[in-house]
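Our preliminary data section would be incomplete without showing what the modeling component actually yields. Below, a chain of 372 amino acids is followed by its predicted structure, encoded as tokens that our downstream tools consume directly.
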Amino acid sequence: MTDIGLPAAETGRSLWADAWNRLKANKAAMLSIWYLALMTVLCIVGPWFTPHDFTTIYQDYTRVPPSLEAYPKPDAIDLAVKDAVKRSRLDLAGWEERDGKVFITVTSAKPIDDRVTRYIDRSDVFEGAQVTEKSADGLKLTMSADVQKKYFFFGTDNTGRDLLTRTLIAGRVSLAIGLLAGLVAVVIGVLYGAIAGFTGGRTDEIMMRIVDILYSLPFIFFVIMLVVFFGRNFVLMFLAVGAVLWLDMARIVRGQALSLKRQEYVQAAEALGVSPGGILLRHVVPNLLGPVVIYMTLLVPQVIILESFLSFLGLGVQEPMSSWGVLISQGAKNIPSATWLLIFPSFFLTTTLFALNFIGDGLRDALDPKDR
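Predicted structure:
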């Protein structure tokens, strides 16, 4: 008797497998995911490899423009020498630079103390100042010092801090705030709205009236109250902000849940005896992910902008910490004289928001069950 070969049964694909395959086919979304991952790694790891700490202030390098060449420039050395000698209350006889060292000759009507080298070391331009030659009467002295080479690829801000390091540190704060508050708002809003919409009836009425009451409260006043209650810890503060921003998410999810609970597959699950919790988690919530993801990609920049506003009021991120919103606010005040203070943080923020929008569009298309 001959065996009849039967075709192998095809393995079913889940919603997540189909979604991942469709997402991989979206080049813009995948490129945005890689860019966002790279941006996150740069903001986390980058400050450890930059040549300056984000709190270090260089008084001799205030608002210097970005450059791939090392500072100081020749004119800056001349200015630094004159300032140092002026602070020492001596007369400058001359100076010259040789082999990475500067030699300064000073004179005075009174004998010069060798400790005058301290005035040279106080400059951000020089280090290791020492006396190399002194006249017999002590009225003329020559000092040498090493010229410190510093790189400021993004320039410096109004107080002389490295903008590259501060931009990366600000990225840590902005991304953490946006994602943290966004996740809090999504979790609370999805659960609250799905339960209200799927349950319906009196439960839905009571839950949505609570949302209406919270909507009636002045938003910024409510946020300020939460900030005062939680203190200046930005993590706790934006957990509180996320706990306020869930209201829009709850309304969106509730409307979607009201529509989905009338679908045939939900009614079939009810007829098969699936519990309401199982239907909610396995059928309703997965089909809500498209709108939820899109709203979250819009929520992250909204939180970043809100953080900038709170920081302007003195309730957000405080010095020496910073965020992209704060750097942009400071850069906008210096457009005529220092455009780089606005260009670099704006570029980081704008490209990150573009990436989030492309990712949101890709996830919306990938998670749409109608495209399966």
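The first strand starts at residue 91 and ends at 98. The mean pLDDT is 83. Preliminary results of this kind motivate Aim 1 of the renewal.
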